[in-house]
Structures are given as structure tokens and as C-alpha cells.
Specification:
This protein is mainly α. Helices cover about 55% and strands about 5% of the residues.
């Protein structure tokens, strides 16, 4: 049974248009650059470190969907920046830019009606593209929520944020 337009629309909402979840852009908007490398109490990573993890994981899943010769990355080492890595404003912006670029590629994939989302990824006949799209959306929303809580704990939301 082919996926309906309605299901594709719902998948697009899950990927990035918020729906009942905070959108990525809303979470990162107006983050103070002097705090991107700060580690809050009882948290082993900084806000940038968490965003870079999201970017790396999303990119890995996009590669998994698209590459016939995909090679599994080492967990957790290849899914997080190297320990102690920090970022400047340019690196922060590049993380966000690349996250958006890969998310746009995933959205294009979902929107392409000629693409069989119930088909398997090229390197693994046990995993469907649909499964991977849902995994990306789930992973992103989990960490967007985590990022929002970090902002609350760190007091980095702009004045008047609700």
C-alpha cells in the first residue's frame, strides 16, 4: 500500500515543522554566544556539543538511507564531537547550517512521491526508509527538548520567553 499524501505531510511535520514539538529554530534562536561551551551543573556537555551530536547523528542516518556502501560508525565516538571539543560562533553557525541542510535533504526525500519510503535502505534489507525517517524525527525531538531544558537551567532564554 503506497504512502498517502497525508502520511507524507505528517512525516514532514515530525521532521521539522514542530507540530506538538518545539521546532529546532525556536530552541536555538537567540542563544548567547558566550555560553555555547558552558556545561551546566550535572551535565557532561555544552549546548554546542549537544547540537553537534544531533547534526552528526542526523547526517549518519541520511547517509544510511542514501549510500549503498554505508559503513556503520562507531558508537558513541562517531556520534559526538571528540571530548573537550569547543566551538566559536562560526562553528556554532556551521553546525546549525549543516543540520538544516541535511534536514532539508530528508524533507525532500519524504516529499518525493516517486521514492518508496516503505522500501529498504540500500545497505540493509531489514530497515525501511520510513523507519529511518521516524528515527531521525524522534532523535531530533528528544534532543530539542533536552536543549530547551538546558536553556532553562542555564537561564539563557531571552527575556519574555514562554
Amino acid at each position: 500500500m503506497p504512502l498517502t499524501d497525508e502520511i507524507r505531510t505528517r512525516l514532514l511535520e515530525l521532521l521539522g515543522r514542530g507540530n506538538s514539538h518545539m521546532a529546532f529554530d525556536d530552541a536555538v534562536r537567540d542563544f548567547p554566544m558566550d555560553r555555547i561551551n558552558e556545561t551546566p551543573p550535572n551535565v557532561p556537555y555544552s549546548p554546542w556539543y549537544l547540537l553537534e551530536h544531533m547534526r552528526l547523528t542526523q547526517r549518519d542516518i541520511l547517509d544510511y538511507i542514501e549510500q549503498e556502501d554505508y559503513r556503520e560508525r562507531a558508537w558513541p565516538d562517531d556520534s559526538w564531537p571528540p571530548p573537550g571539543t569547543t566551538a566559536d560562533e562560526a562553528a556554532w553557525n556551521e553546525t546549525i547550517r549543516q543540520f538544516h541542510e541535511d534536514l532539508t535533504s530528508l524533507e525532500a526525500l519524504v516529499s518525493d512521491k516517486s521514492r518508496d519510503l516503505e522500501g529498504t535502505v540500500p545497505s540493509n534489507d531489514r530497515h525501511t526508509i520510513l523507519r529511518e525517517i521516524i528515527t531521525v524525527a524522534s532523535h531530533n525531538h528528544y534532543h530539542i527538548g533536552e536543549f530547551a531544558i538546558l536553556r532553562q537551567v542555564m537561564g539563557t532564554w531571552p527575556p519574555g520567553h514562554r
